[in-house]
Design goal:
With 329 residues, the protein is of the alpha+beta class. It has helices spanning 22-31, 39-50, 52-60, 66-79, 90-93, 101-108, 145-148, 167-174, 184-196, 225-231, 256-260, 285-289, 309-318, and strands at 3-5, 14-16, 94-99, 114-116, 131-143, 158-165, 179-182, 200-206, 212-219, 237-238, 242-246, 266-269, 272-275, 295-299. The protein has 13 helices and 14 strands.
Length: 329
């Protein structure tokens, strides 16, 4: 088996070509020019992209190896300074931002390269909150690692949208049989079909993926590892910046919204839908399921700023720091 040397050196210096092809070399090239991105991050990112089904399967506890790997990682976490002092823990480095359907559509419709950094009001975590889109029309639909790890997964499987480079090429290179390249129109069709099934769109960020946005996942509450973690008290998801409101005069008391809510936020009381504002993530799934139009989304400034890519680009340009540029990392 041929080996390809990496010009950057380090732990990935010599690897088999099927593990270290052109897209992987591009990922390494970009990684070595990304601030605050260590060799440990790079190895972590490579493992995450190369073996996502094992990675997520262990994380959700579905893979047989999780019985001994997870306790080992827990012991390492107590020995290493993760989550204490300098480097944050997993909840701060791997997380999603809930997106209403229209916001997700806009994110796959971007036609220009974008650089938006330090989006703390939008992504309220210590790391992994940049949006740097290079070749945003390069989109890959990947079989969802969360769904694939379950015994009886929701279908279809290929609903994770990897957006832009170097991520789309990296994932497709390592998983050609479990991924496919899609157009913007095809990506939007996947978003709409999943939303109609009652699934939630999340924009996912990760420190090991260059500390930035890399994917839109269409998540079901029964399979999604991040939603599972939220139910266990690990804050891996950020609110969309909206909350659901109810027009009591229009509510028919049918209960469709209660059945549809992925976060268990909506319930019927005295024949009318009621929303727990403290737990509502503002995904808009219940709004789409309401046949009488009694539900809607309203801005909730205390829940953060919505990830509206068009508005963020416009705000950046107005501030004198154009977000659309050919000089992306």
């Amino acid at each position: 088996m041929a080996l390809i040397p990496c010009r950057e050196g380090g732990p990935l210096r010599h690897m088999p070509t099927r593990w270290f092809g052109p897209a992987t070399r591009t990922f390494v090239h970009v990684a070595r020019r990304t601030d605050d991105y260590s060799w440990a991050d790079l190895v972590h990112g490579y493992v995450y992209a190369r073996w996502p089904y094992l990675y997520i399967g262990i994380g959700t506890g579905e893979h047989p190896a999780s019985r001994w790997v997870r306790p080992l990682l827990g012991r390492l976490g107590r020995l290493l300074p993760f989550g204490r002092g300098g480097r944050p823990g997993m909840a701060d480095t791997y997380h999603g931002k809930v997106l209403p359907l229209e916001a997700a559509r806009k994110l796959v419709a971007v036609q220009e390269e974008v650089r938006l950094t330090d989006l703390e009001p939008v992504i309220p975590y210590q790391r992994a909150r940049d949006i740097i889109l290079r070749n945003p029309d390069h989109i890959v639909a990947l079989e969802c690692p969360c769904r694939a790890s379950r015994q009886n997964p929701c279908l279809p499987l290929d609903v994770c949208l990897i957006v832009g480079e170097p991520f789309a090429g990296l994932v497709h290179e390592h998983h050609p049989r479990r991924s496919r390249r899609v157009s913007r129109a095809e990506a939007e069709a996947i978003l709409e079909a999943e939303h109609a099934r009652g699934h939630v769109q999340h924009a996912f960020f990760k420190d090991a993926m260059l500390g930035r946005f890399y994917a839109i996942c269409n998540c079901c509450s029964c399979c999604c590892g991040a939603m599972q973690a939220m139910r266990s008290g690990t804050p891996m998801l950020a609110s969309s910046g909206y909350v659901c409101v109810v027009d009591e005069r229009a509510c028919a008391g049918c209960g469709d919204c209660e059945a549809a809510c992925p976060f268990g936020t909506v319930r019927l009381e005295d024949g009318c839908a009621m929303v727990d504002r403290a737990t509502c993530m503002g995904c808009g799934v219940c709004v789409s399921m309401c046949e009488t139009g009694a539900l809607g989304l309203t801005l909730a400034p205390d829940r953060g700023t919505p990830l509206d890519i068009c508005q963020l680009i416009a705000d950046s340009a107005a501030a004198g720091a154009p977000a659309s540029t050919g000089a992306t990392r």
